[in-house]
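Morning F.,

Quick status update on the modeling queue. The single chain you submitted on Monday has been processed. Sequence for confirmation:
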Amino acid sequence: DLGNGFFLNPILAGDHADPSVLKDGDDYYLVHSSFLRYPGLLIWHSRDLVNWVPVGPALTQSVGSVWAPDLIRHGGRYYIYFPGRKPDYLSNYVVWADSIHGPWSDPIDLRIGRIDPGHAVAPDGRRYLFMDDGYRIELAADGLSVVGEMHKVYDGWAYPDEWVGEGLCQEGPKILRRGDTYYMVLAEGGTAGPPTSHMVVAARSKSLDGPWENSPHNPIVRTRTREEKWCSRGHATLVEGPGGTWYLVYHAYENGFYTLGRHTLLEPVVWTEDGWFKSAGHDVAAPIPKTGGEALPHGRVFSDDFSADRMGVQWTFHVDGAFEPGRYRLENRGLVVQGRGESPRDCAPLGFNAGDQAYQVEVDIELGEGARAGLILFYDHKLYAGLGFDGQHLIGHCFGLDSKGPLPKSVGRRLQLRLHNDRHIVSVFFSVDGTQWFRHPRGLEVSGYHHNVAGEFLSLRPALYAAGRGEVTFRNFKYQALP
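Structure tokens below.
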């Protein structure tokens, strides 16, 4: 929010992929894919679609990598439908709550494959989930189980052969009823890969059974050249904003900063006389007029003195297996984490979703017996970089590899670490007293730590790790965005 009646994209910086937006009276709620980060499905609240404040997570039980969700309200109850993907199992789940603030139910396994569920209700009240590749399945009346078999109801929109994409990748269907017409908004072309691949397309029908007519304005949104600021624009929700202006809320990579993941963007659309919608023609890299609504306090604070009685909503564990909420505790203005595994690759680091191109982070670390810990940039078990220590050695991390070096004699089991990331160029420092800092000799370049290299649709995040047998206490975590 530029404070002058305009806003500048992104509305949520950093890794906020696959946005699903619910209009609930004058309130808007938003949820994204959380992948392997737990607690997951963090819900956001807005009244103007530009300024967003976190509400809290809806998922604390691990079901694997959580992909594109759909947040809806039906019969006074809130539901989130989402896929959970494990190496040997893919299914779709639902959590529900009577209040958007929770408590949320445990995830219920709907025992259906495919991805990207989109909820829809027929005039007779029957409920459905639309899935990727044009499939649909009926839900029970309570929305907590499925009825019958999956059926294909839509063939998608065939984009030109000369366009360079990852494939048709027909996914992310979101269904909206306006008047007596249903509109399906979906993604095609692949969510990453070439910068011109992803796109938003639309179709409409008088019935959820079809036939579905493709929009003459397809693609509604697409990155057309590799020089544009926002790449791989797609996976949208269509929503009416305050004042009656309509918008698409979708994700995109920032050109040159794929490490940050897919940001959330907001683009106005207009309705045509023949009942279609199309882009209003704004440059999404330039200021766009706001259309009213109350501006809530935006964003979340990353710095943490750990004085609260619960974990801050900015923190998530990267979990390949079961999430262990009992692994940590807050006491004496410190976050105490039980060590696990041997290194960042297998200890489930604790990180947060930074959206700045340049920033600095610091933390004070105290090791318990048998523990090792550090401050890193973490993508996944294959790609991470930073610095740690074990009471006897400094441990350098680069390319997902670990190397030990001598620890200065003045260092015991307590050390302060600093990580400076200036547009992919990373330096790490350590200090005993917080006044005199020493640069680690290994400089790092991390521009390739992203999905097109390593897969998994993740982002490179500042993170704390606690490995080994003992406990680690983290204190005075500080985050500073840099110009």
